[in-house]
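INTERNAL TRANSFER SHEET
From: sequence group
To: structure group
Subject: ABC transporter substrate-binding protein

Please process the attached sequence and return the structure record in the designated field. Keep the field labels unchanged so the import script can parse them.
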Amino acid sequence: MTRTRGVLCPVERRGLLKGAAAVAAAPLLGACSQGASDGVGADGKVTVELWHGQVDIAKDAIQTLVTEFNRTHPRIRVDAGGGGVVSDAMLQKVTAALAAGSYPDIAYIFGSDLASIARSPRVVDLTDAMRGGPTAWNSFWAPVREAVTVNGKVRAAPALLDSLAVVYNRKLFRQAGVPFPEAGWTWDEFTDTARKLTDSGRGVFGTGWPGTGDEDTVWRLWPMIWDLGGDVVAADGRSIGFAGQGVRALDTLRRLVEDKSVYVDPKPGGEQMYQVFLGGRMAMVATGPWQLPDILDAEVDYDVVPLPSYSGRPVTISGPDTWTVFDNGSARSRAAVEFVQWMMRPEQDARWDIRAGSLPLGSATERQPQWRKHSQQTTGLRVFTDALDSARVRPVHAAYPQISQALGEAIVSVLLGRDSPTDALRRCADKADAALLIPR
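Return from structure group:
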């Protein structure tokens, strides 16, 4: 998933849905093949292959950390070749590698993909390594721990964390004579504010929403559904848990469409939507901390406020991503675990978060002097970090890709005025419920 500036973000999952069917076959195929050699050279050094999929700034940040690790761990050499694909395509790349029996030691896997990929017997169980590792397990935020846990076992190490909040253009608010939004505002206030700030004559939109139906389109709706009491999957596990709540959330989008106050981005990744905001022609955008470097570079007079709610209770979504470790023999597995544990240490995590435009994985990183300085110097960053207290994550469920695809189609149909919220959600439920009934 590509952020602007090349920083990779857990929300723009263009490759997620395309790879969902293929990954289901991976465990059986992968189980029939043995991985590469144990990786111990004649000099006793173990080589670990890392597929990270990062580009530009994040790639440089990873390489800097890998270089330091290799320098300070002379018995291990991490090869950060990257895997030859960006993170959007990592699911398909790893799936094919598992099928061929030649796979990396570590791969950057989106949190919402973990349940599918963890079905492979080649994925190393990290429960003991994470819960008994050098960084206290309980020091990580709850969304981090939940995102790497499948059926009670820790199946990956946390790699990156974010949350959603609303960034707004102060200049446009002042020009329109509209008060700045404040914490505790409602979705009715949001839609009303978007309408007041829309100026078709000047090409100014109140807000924007990705309109491709991918995960970037979908994940922004989950906080609305959770706030209304819904869930991704019902308690019985056989149907969606947002049949009614989804209609009301989609009706909020319908109001934005009818007011002509929402810019619907037709391109994957939300790139056009962000360009409209950076160009001073969008008043508000729901986004994550990864976007702040671009906003600062564009010299937008901005601030950040928590997401609106229906209930008055704060709620947002976090999209943690993972370092997933694969079994290529005991020596390589141990070395891979040592590397990801090192990456999770507060000192390294703070450096990675600052460069990658993400949030600290836990309270220990948040207390690091370099992070505290960075947070104090970056307008609004604290809002994203504080939002982690009310953040939820999508369930680590093998059927999630199909549920997301169905909901993405429903959202787009409402954004484009093709369907009513009720009709769109009915079709979503039919498809998603069918996916939940497939044995896994």
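Handover comment: Residues 1-36 have pLDDT under 50 and may be disordered. The two ends are 26 Å apart (CA to CA).
Transfer complete.
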